[in-house]
Amino acid sequence: MIHARKLSRTFTRKRGKERVDAVRGLDLDVEAGTLLAFLGPNGAGKSTTLRMLTTLLPPTSGTATVAGCDIARDPDGVRRRIGYVGQKNSASDHHRVRDELVAQGRAYGMTRARAGERADALLDRLDLQELANRTPTTLSGGQRRRVDIALGLVHAPELLFLDEPSTGLDPHSRAEVWNFILRLREESGMTLFLTTHYLEEADSMAERVVIVDRGRTIADGTADELKSELAGDRIDLGLRDAADAERARGVAARFSSEAAAAPDPSPAPAEPADTTVRIPVPNADTALPELLAAMEGAGIKVATARGVRPTLDDVFLALTGRSLTEEEPTE
Ligand SMILES: Nc1ncnc2c1ncn2[C@@H]1O[C@H](COP(=O)(O)OP(=O)(O)OP(=O)(O)O)[C@@H](O)[C@H]1O
Predict the structure, then answer these.
(1) Which GO terms describe its molecular function (predicted)?
(2) pTM of the model
């Protein structure tokens, strides 16, 4: 459904004095029917990639076909086959939801009757009937986002791009929008390509996660594959004081060669107290009892112990030494 080869985009700023390589040689193949989450820190090149694939921005070099059409040679073909839901609300504030859907259908060349039928079918299928005669200003954030998504579906695209669909929403509305997306995916089997900042959402909802950093793909797979191949489990031990923690690190070294080389191999976004020891292990469930027995054998009193499964942030940290939840330093 999407095939990109060496897709690149360079911007020049300050009257050509400064070059920004926003996307650098991206290769990507996406099968039809996939729900793909495109993740990365601020400035990684996610929106630029999305804008190139949706023909809103020409690439500096490289090629891509989207839904069978070349983005450079046949941008109209791409636009007819895809839907795009941007970060800003697309519905105007003062038109009723059904009228807005009809206007969108007309913009795609449908007759008034056909556009009306399509609007009603969408309202029905997406459970939006009760919003049909309301104006967007009277809707909640989640409802408004659902209407935006419906607008992107009027011309029955094969593929829908969503740029940060749940950003700026409260947790309840985020869950509402996600349920909506998952239902859409289940019922239509359509291909969904979305960017998100929310790692937990990408982790639990997407079938495939592509992580980009500084314009390049650094990881690609299912969330489980990425976590088990690139991050691994961890055990966090809480000790009574810094001296005990130091001794515990020595004992832990035998469980993990990395633990010996780097006493705190995984600096979390919140700095751990120096009484906390973090130990990378292949499997936390089996390592925990052995580790506690070893600590006891060395006369070290452990106050707290817990096995920690990796998150996608741990994957990013393992690959880049930075946390995905940290802000990028401004260039
Ligand atoms: N029109 C532009 N002119 C100059 N630089 C740009 C332009 N658009 C994007 N950039 C730069 O390109 C880089 C990638 O930006 P992009 O918006 O694609 O990142 P992103 O991953 O979508 O970030 P965010 O998560 O913050 O939306 C950034 O350094 C950004 O400042």
Answers:
(1) ATP binding
(2) 0.79
